[in-house]
């Protein structure tokens, strides 16, 4: 399923902020160039962000990066029992809404890091979501320079929130993790360019100009996982992207993502996602398609 590209209306301001009260919250599989900060209340259903999908309900606050496909589908039965219209507070803004270099200032580094992490989608816990209900409502109805101050204040607060979950995998947003050093940048670039084939540990350690044992320690220290664990995430994440696009048979997708045989691909895919590739694909298939 190819995401629809949404053109965010160019309103009279540097960013948009809206309040909506749809009877049911239905957002099709789509993406856009802007960041999206969205709070969803009084709604239950399924959330899809990149290759992540899960149930949602009560209070849902997310920060979604540019060009990251996402979709919400209401649970009709649960929402009809709830008897309350959904309430959605949403802001769209570009990384440069305050100019090209604003977030390069030392004081802005925490927010810059937040925006970098949001390229894979961030989900904040319900307590954080409810805490920002009033600030987001004020943002929607603020005018003039107060709008900018409020948005920056919200982003600054979210940059300090400890309780948040990264949604899309490394592989779905290839190379999205912010490299901390040139060495790590070179390693991630090498993985992005070669994950479809065999990657020997000796080769990638050579890219980092390190001996294999030193590289293994270095990689785990910086990424919090072994290199082969990360490589598998990249391959499975890319497979999820291809399955969602619905253009190739499963066997070809497995081969295109660096798996030498279908049974190995199915086994590795289930270990990471909890389901077989065909079952995963059906999660993103529109009814009647």
Jot down its keywords:
43% helix; RmlC_Cupin_sf; Jelly Rolls; 6-stranded antiparallel beta sheet; 5-stranded mixed beta sheet; 2 domains; 12 helices; alpha+beta; DNA-binding; Arc Repressor Mutant, subunit A; HTH araC/xylS-type domain-containing protein; 289 residues
Given the helix and strand composition, which structural class is it? Answer: alpha+beta
Please tell me the total number of domains. Answer: 2
- SSE order, as H and E? EEEEEEEEHEHEHHHEHHHHHHH
Q: Major β-sheet, in short?
A: 6 strands, antiparallel
CATH names the topology of the largest domain as Jelly Rolls
DSSP strand count: 11
Major sheet: arrangement of strands: 2-9-4-7-10-11
Which oligomerization state do the chains in this entry correspond to?
single chain
Rg: 20 Å
Low-confidence residue ranges: 175-181
β-strand percent reads 15-25%
- Helix-residue proportion: 40-55%
The mean pLDDT is 86
User: Count of helices?
Assistant: 12
- The shape is globular
Q: Name the CATH class of the largest domain.
A: Mainly Beta
State the end-to-end CA separation: 9 Å
Q: What would you give as the CATH superfamily of the largest domain?
A: Regulatory protein AraC
CATH architecture label name of the largest domain: Sandwich
């Amino acid at each position: 399923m190819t995401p629809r590209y949404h053109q965010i209306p160019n309103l009279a301001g540097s960013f948009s902020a809206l309040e909506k009260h749809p009877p049911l919250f239905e957002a099709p599989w789509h993406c856009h160039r802007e960041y999206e900060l969205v709070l969803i209340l009084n709604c239950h259903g399924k959330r899809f962000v990149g290759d992540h999908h899960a149930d949602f309900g009560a209070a849902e606050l997310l920060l979604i990066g540019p060009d990251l496909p996402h979709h919400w589908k209401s649970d009709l039965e649960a929402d009809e029992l709830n008897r309350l219209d959904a309430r959605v507070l949403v802001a769209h803004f570009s990384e440069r809404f305050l100019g090209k270099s604003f977030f390069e200032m030392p004081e802005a580094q925490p927010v810059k890091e937040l925006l970098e992490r949001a390229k894979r989608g961030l989900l904040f816990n319900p307590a954080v979501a409810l805490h920002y209900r009033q600030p987001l409502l004020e943002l929607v109805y603020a005018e003039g320079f107060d709008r900018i101050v409020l948005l920056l204040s919200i982003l600054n607060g979210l940059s300090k929130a400890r309780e948040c979950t990264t949604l899309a995998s490394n592989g779905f947003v290839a190379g999205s993790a912010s490299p901390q050093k040139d060495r790590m940048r070179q390693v991630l670039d090498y993985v992005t360019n070669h994950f479809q084939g065999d990657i020997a540990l000796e080769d990638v350690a050579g890219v980092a100009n390190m001996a294999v044992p030193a590289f293994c320690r270095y990689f785990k220290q910086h990424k919090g996982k072994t290199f082969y664990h990360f490589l598998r995430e990249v391959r499975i994440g890319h497979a999820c992207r291809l399955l969602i696009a619905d253009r190739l048979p499963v066997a070809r997708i497995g081969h295109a993502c660096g798996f030498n045989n279908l049974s190995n691909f199915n086994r590795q895919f289930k270990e990471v996602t909890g389901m077989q590739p065909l079952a995963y694909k059906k999660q993103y298939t529109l009814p009647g398609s």
